[in-house]
């Protein structure tokens, strides 16, 4: 009998287990893959966000700022690679100027160190970027998130974390003495369960008898990498002014913590929950997506953009 079962070996699950073990609780973490951070946590571009975009006073804004500080403190004390390389958010047309101003005001209200700069100062920061105005966020950065995950696991295991890889959940049952999680390698019982299941969060919730009222619709973001002789063209992270019609930050250039520069992402409907390429198809996942009313409403409104994103995925010239 454990105090807590944590479901999911990504950064959220590992950070949760790390903090719970600090309280002296007995914790077991179950992960369906044979390695940690195998999905979203190990496939991000590694950006440390500063909270410039979020509505002032919102939980996103508050948690982003607090989380950034905690992340930097942990990376510094534990030797996890990170770099505060800064970023610029660049307006290239006049109609983007007002949206850039709104982002700047949000950043100021959220206590983010940022400044609004003109084209001359932008050229000093990024000599190869052309824009009519930009926001410079000097404390944005990048980190090695898989290394962060490994270090969280090591520290939690030192405090007694029981780490169970290759344990896919098949059922969750509540009873008088706690919660029993059936896995592909046997049952585990605890007083409480914390689900940090990423792309399967909705399924785990339903398995536990809850109705989250929403459903995960999988999109993947694809990146291209700059050729080595072009990497010097980017000194910082370079972002566009996001389009308010879509919940994405737009295609950006990202310096990588171990070298190289990525350009992306697009936003392509995935044909499986973990469909990282066109060759990965899960008919059950796809049928679930197509049958979901939320997706159908999204597709009816934005089908042209969806087709364009698919075209950009299949054509490197269109992506460029």
CATH architecture of the largest domain: 2-Layer Sandwich
Major pleated sheet? 6 strands, mixed
Helix content: 25-40%
The CATH topology of the largest domain comes to: D-Amino Acid Oxidase, Chain A, domain 2
In one word, what is the shape?
globular
**Order of strands in the sheet with most strands:** 9-2-1-12-11-10
Structural summary, described in words:
This protein has 320 residues and is an alpha+beta fold. It has two domains: 2-46 and 146-207, FAD/NAD(P)-binding domain (3-Layer(bba) Sandwich); 83-142 and 218-319, 2-Layer Sandwich (D-Amino Acid Oxidase, Chain A, domain 2). The chain contains ten helices and 18 strands. The chain has helices spanning 11-22, 40-43, 59-78, 97-109, 119-125, 145-158, 201-207, 283-290, 293-314, 316-319, and strands spanning 2-7, 27-30, 47-48, 82-83, 87-91, 115-117, 133-137, 141-143, 162-164, 169-175, 178-183, 186-195, 219-220, 224-225, 237-240, 252-255, 261-264, 268-269. A six-stranded mixed beta sheet has the order 9-2-1-12-11-10. It has a four-stranded mixed beta sheet with strand order 6-7-5-15. A three-stranded antiparallel beta sheet has the order 3-8-4, covered by helices on one side. A hairpin with a 5-residue loop joins β16 and β17. The N and C termini lie far apart (54 Å).
Task: Describe the secondary-structure layout.
Layout: E1 2-7, H1 11-22, E2 27-30, H2 40-43, E3 47-48, H3 59-78, E4 82-83, E5 87-91, H4 97-109, E6 115-117, H5 119-125, E7 133-137, E8 141-143, H6 145-158, E9 162-164, E10 169-175, E11 178-183, E12 186-195, H7 201-207, E13 219-220, E14 224-225, E15 237-240, E16 252-255, E17 261-264, E18 268-269, H8 283-290, H9 293-314, H10 316-319
Parallel strand pairs: 1-2, 1-12, 2-9, 5-15
Antiparallel strand pairs: 3-8, 4-8, 5-7, 6-7, 10-11, 11-12, 13-18, 14-17, 16-17
Helix pairs in contact: 1-6
